[in-house]
Amino acid sequence: MSDYRKDFIAFCVECGALKFGEFTTKSGRISPYFFNVGAFASGSALERLAQFYAKAILASGLKFDMIFGPAYKGIALAAATAVALARAGRDVPYAFNRKEAKDHGEGGDTIGATVAGRVLIVDDVLTAGTAVRESLALIRARGATPAGLAIALDRMERGQGELSAVREIEERHALSVVAIANLDDLTGWLQARPGMEPQLRAIEEYRQHYGAADHV
After folding, report:
1. pTM, rounded to two decimals
2. Annotation marks residue 173 as catalytic
3. What is the span of the domain harbouring residue 200?
4. What is the DSSP letter of 25?
5. Which three-class secondary structure state does DSSP give residue 153?
6. What CATH number does residue 56 fall under?
7. CA-CA distance, 161 to 24, in Å (whole number)?
8. pLDDT along the chain (216 residues), means of 10
9. How many domains does the chain have?
């Protein structure tokens, strides 16, 4: 595990964005852990989160011209990541969408830079992929090209079929997905910490039931 991935997991636990227990996911699965990007609710926490996004994006070598954030969580993530990338020497424009198109003032269904070129979508996690599909449609409708998707955590569990939700999106839309960290990073972090054996066992049992075929 690279240092930034290990530091990211520790940061998530510290901020309360990553919790252990019993949580019902959108799919109805009872998960032994829960990730909530909304817990990064201060300026310093959001700034550090954006730095992790920037590190993962730059480390991926993905080629892109701008950043797009799907409403609502993606709005703050895209803006903060654009700032972090600029501080790292990669200044790119960013935009985000409205849930409902505005018919007065500047109008339109997006805010920020013109959606053009190779567009990198920045969001929190990938579950049903609805927000991603909507973003892809918006990007392509403007003649731009989806360059990839950056997320915070890859749960590495099955999507609608036997493959992971991430792999399904990659194959279905020919899209590269970059994650700051994944389930392997989380289990590796737990293994290195005494007293976390119950949480580790619970996650391993959950993975036996819902782990994706491409991550076995």
Report:
1. 0.90
2. no
3. 3-215
4. -
5. strand
6. 3.40.50.2020
7. 19
8. 89 97 87 95 97 97 97 94 98 90 60 97 79 89 96 86 82 92 95 96 93 66
9. 1
